[in-house]
Design goal:
The structure is a single chain. The chain has 11 helices and 11 strands. By secondary structure, the protein is α+β, with helices and mostly antiparallel strands. A 3-stranded antiparallel beta sheet has the order 1-3-2. A two-stranded antiparallel sheet has the order 4-5. It has a two-stranded antiparallel ribbon with strand order 6-7.
Length: 232
């Protein structure tokens, strides 16, 4: 491929992406996702002030052009920016345009938003923080949509009394991202997520509330929970 053809291909690709962003409703959808929180098609349609069928067409265009990705969770479909590079490009365009991104405002009751159960694992702001911490310190690695433990992560889990080989033998996913419905970011699901919840309950870092999915964590319990999984 000669230089002139490469330049023409680049120009066409850029023009296609510019066209996807240039439509006002699609631009509002993209900007609303800059805070890192996923949203449903219904929410994005409301933000963009368009009908459901129009929103569906816009979302398909944005996915086809590589700007959005979709995560299916139960009966719901959540959309988020396809990559960090997409977010950086949008941020740069917003600076040039002189406008700010729309912040995410959660509506979940505080006690449920902070910590609760999600099936058999932990959810809420504490669980999202733990998920991010495990990734940041290199204990948890993303292996094409499935999570695995690094050597340091496996050793750390074993030191806390978690039988990793036994969890890996279970007939279920070992570890995976589970989208948190209040935070719209991932917490840890799968057999490992369930084991971490049971550990937190045994250590009394967390307690179940009666007749509720909420978990009660004292400030000290929350600190101990996060500290237990902090790498040396």
């Amino acid at each position: 491929m000669d230089d002139k053809h490469q330049a023409r291909t680049a120009d066409m690709g850029l023009a296609q992406l510019a066209g996807a962003i240039a439509e006002p409703a699609r631009a509002r959808m993209l900007c609303s996702l800059l805070d890192g929180h996923a949203r449903t098609a219904t929410e994005l349609a409301a933000l963009a002030e368009v009908g459901a069928s129009t929103a569906s067409a816009h979302l398909s265009r944005l996915r086809d052009d590589g700007l959005l990705s979709m995560l299916a969770q139960g009966k719901h479909r959540y959309y988020r920016l396809a990559s960090m590079e997409v977010g950086q490009a949008l941020e740069a365009l917003l600076v040039v345009a002189g406008v700010a991104a729309t912040p995410f405002t959660p509506t979940t009751p505080d006690r449920l938003r902070h910590a609760r159960t999600c099936y058999d694992h932990m959810a809420g702001t504490v669980a999202v923080a733990l998920h991010d911490q495990l990734h940041t310190q290199g204990w948890l690695l993303d292996d094409g949509g499935e999570y695995r433990l690094s050597e340091a992560g496996a050793a750390g889990m074993a030191a806390l009394g978690i039988d990793v080989p036994q969890l890996q033998r279970q007939r279920r996913r070992f570890a995976c991202a589970c989208l948190d419905w209040s935070e719209r970011r991932a917490h840890l699901g799968g057999a490992l997520g369930a084991a971490l919840l049971q550990l937190a309950l045994r250590q009394r870092w967390a307690e179940r509330e009666l007749d509720s999915r909420a978990l009660r964590l004292t400030p000290a319990g929350e600190q101990r929970l996060l500290a237990a999984f902090r790498g040396a």
